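Supplementary material to the annual report.
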Amino acid sequence: QQQVKQSPQSLIVQKGGIPIINCAYENTAFDYFPWYQQFPGKGPALLIAIRPDVSEKKEGRFTISFNKSAKQFSLHIMDSQPGDSATYFCAASIIQGAQKLVFGQGTRLTINP
Amino acid sequence: NAGVTQTPKFRVLKTGQSMTLLCAQDMNHEYMYWYRQDPGMGLRLIHYSVGEGTTAKGEVPDGYNVSRLKKQNFLLGLESAAPSQTSVYFCASTKGRYNQPQHFGDGTRLSIL
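Predicted assembly:
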């Protein structure tokens, strides 16, 4: 119940395309859903996050779509650029003494020029 | 402003050896976390701390110990390293308990031979 399932494992898109990464969860106690971006040799960095009372959130070229009834959420990257090539992790947060993040397995995204 | 700093960046150990990983944050954050990252498994929580002098177990605590003697530092210890502990270790900190971004260090890559 604490798992977050992320797909695909890897994704290759041409510059300007719209990569979409999907995540699904089971535990309805999760109350905050962030996406992290990680470049090689670096730690993950928060990209965008959403709460379950919102169906969509957009920040620049990045959009989260959230479907509470299906327990699924996804990341869309508009007008993708080679600099967006990175590993992306979805996560779900639950408060148990502290904010605990349960991460998806990660998606390695490559944007070809 | 360094954020979250992890030392060392790389280390190779022999089975049975011990070592301590150091995490330091300069953001006056209350909450600190240790994760391990393995291919295809995302990040998994090892231990966390809700404040100076406190520690608690996460999802995969076996074989690790932690201490938080000072608010800015969170130490992760391996008493008797095993090959299964070969991983990249990340430390993170966050200001508060609810819907706060976790700030990650750049990781320690640890190999156990």
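Chain A touches chain B through 28 residues (CB under 8 Å).
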